[in-house]
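Why does this matter for the project? Reviewers at the last site visit asked to see concrete outputs rather than summary tables. In response, this paragraph embeds two records directly. Each consists of the residue sequence and, immediately after it, the corresponding structure tokens. Nothing has been edited or filtered.
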Amino acid sequence: MGVPGGPGGPLGLVEDFWGDCGPWDPPEFTSSVLHSLHYLAVAVSEPSLGIPQYMEMGFVDGIPFTRYDSERGRVEPLTQWMKDGAEPGYWDTQTQISERSQPVAARNLETLRGRYNQSRGLHMLQRLLGCDVLSDGSVRGSHREGYNGRDFISFDLGSGRFVAADGAAEITRRRWEENKAICPEWLRKYVGYGQKELERKDPPDVHVSGKEEHGTLILSCHAYGFYPKTITVNWMKGDEIWDQETEWGGVVPNSDGTFHTWARIEALPEEREQYRCRVEHPGMPEPGIFAWEPTSGWNLPVVVTVSVIAAILIPTVLIGFIVWNLQSGNTWDGGREGARIHPAPFQESCGTDPDPTVFPQGGGTGMDTTWQPVSPSGGSSSGSPLCGSQDGSWG
């Protein structure tokens, strides 16, 4: 899988993410995302039961499709289309890359611990990298690094430069400033493997529930089983959308390749009939309006059960990502992109021009990238879908 910038494949050398485009102008965010490729890698200094020392996961259009961790010791497919489509030698090559990445991750952890003058104990590195192909044909890249659940370094889209979160990160920023890499080639290849699955449109099943607590009515709107992950969920009072009062959950993958999300709002019990949930999704011919029917029933345990299965399927690599998002102050915006995450304070980016989010939004953890990259076809290539340092280290 090679997230940490190994010698080849989508997680290989973290060079030429931008291609040889040189200077570029910030794109206009007017086009929708057609497809996205993101890689997340997490390394911890003290592994424990269920939390390997090093973990990687790849996402195409938000769907986990490859994974690696130091306990399994091998890159594995998470979808049938990736298992069927990968070329001979792909898994062996990616496994070798990931194996080489682990000791570099450990060194990077030690480097940052020293820079921050911290004692030994549990420390964590995260890298989230990737790219989106937009409907206008442009490509948007993303690059974000985290240490102990907080932003360490990211790429600022407006200036086209890496942004260091503090003085310790500034050393790394200078080393990375001239690096470039490539991602769309791999994204298009993976989309080709799973085109039938990735281009389908499954509308959501929507259920509205409510309960009273201390004189307040809490209304919840759950959208379940939809694909693709792009969805807008809003609460309306009368004819007005009430986003300021709405709390959103994330768009979370299910074990069957679909997604679920929710939106919640507090209301006065006597105003219950004024509230409606509005859901918009590419699989729906038009936006749907849903009200709470207190006598209606819906098998909520199904969502819980599938979510548990998904949690088993998706390794604890996501724990680091969740912690990172929570501690870096991410917020949920329910407007035209309801239930989609917007990182703060940085716009994740490092591309030639325009993903989903999340997941992830290729990725790595600042690993050694001095090896020769391998192209999707198996031959030598000038790049991979990762950004990063030329030698991968943060020292």
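We now turn to the second protein, recorded in exactly the same manner.
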Amino acid sequence: MTTMRAHLGDQLVVESNRSEATRREGEIVGLHRVDGTPPYDVRWSDTDEVAFVFPGPDAHVQCTEQRKHAEQRERGASGATRVPAEPHLHEV
């Protein structure tokens, strides 16, 4: 089992196997440990609220670099240009 690690600006993605559960994403705006392990302060994209989160097994971190590559692939596939949001830095 690998340990979850994150940096400020990374995305926390929660995806459940249950059909009634929806995917939830948020930006990691606060770290409580210097090694990047949980818990995190997460600004949820659906509510814009910041919550203290200790992610479960249905969560993973999508790092900023992975997001850049995904956005580049998406632009190449659709021909559209997306402007990524700048990370909101939060001191802990």
